[in-house]
């Protein structure tokens, strides 16, 4: 299966699958989702903003996500994983509090005091650079749903098949270009997959 050259190419290809959207609001998940979303917003002549999310990590191994939280939403946990680890939502409350603080910091960095665009009655397209476990995307979609949009689309260049399937009940539509059988990590499907900084995100949003 061919690789995407980079997130920009992936966004350009994804935009071609979203041309039927009617005056949408594009919400990108920082950091990588922003680079994918910029060419989509340009192609659709749409409002672009960020929706900040944070993974909730397993305390002894923070890279293992047991849940996620998005601005405007409540924590969303992988209850099966929590159970297997002998944890409850209450037992990771300190981690959730830490991630809420970091989420608030990033919102201030990316948006300052400006609120999210009004989503009530609008079409919303949530964009990320790929889906592995889908934890942050699920938290983002549930947070967006509380704002009563007319339609919510999740758009990603590549995703694990089971994750894509599980997220179809969280959005009105899921648009994904590749669902490879041998999916191991998002980055393996890009030739160039540089890690982005807060400064990169502000530059992409035209706020540097």
TrEMBL record:
Highest rank taxon of the organism: Bacteria
A Pfam short name: Pribosyltran
Signal peptide (UniProt feature, chain positions): none
GO molecular function: glycosyltransferase activity
InterPro entries attached to this UniProt entry: PRTase-like, PRTase_dom
Domain Phosphoribosyltransferase span(s) in chain numbering: 11-175
CDD domains: PRTases_typeI
Keyword presence, Glycosyltransferase: yes
UniProt keyword terms in alphabetical order: Glycosyltransferase, Transferase
Protein name: Phosphoribosyltransferase
Organism this protein belongs to: Nonomuraea aridisoli
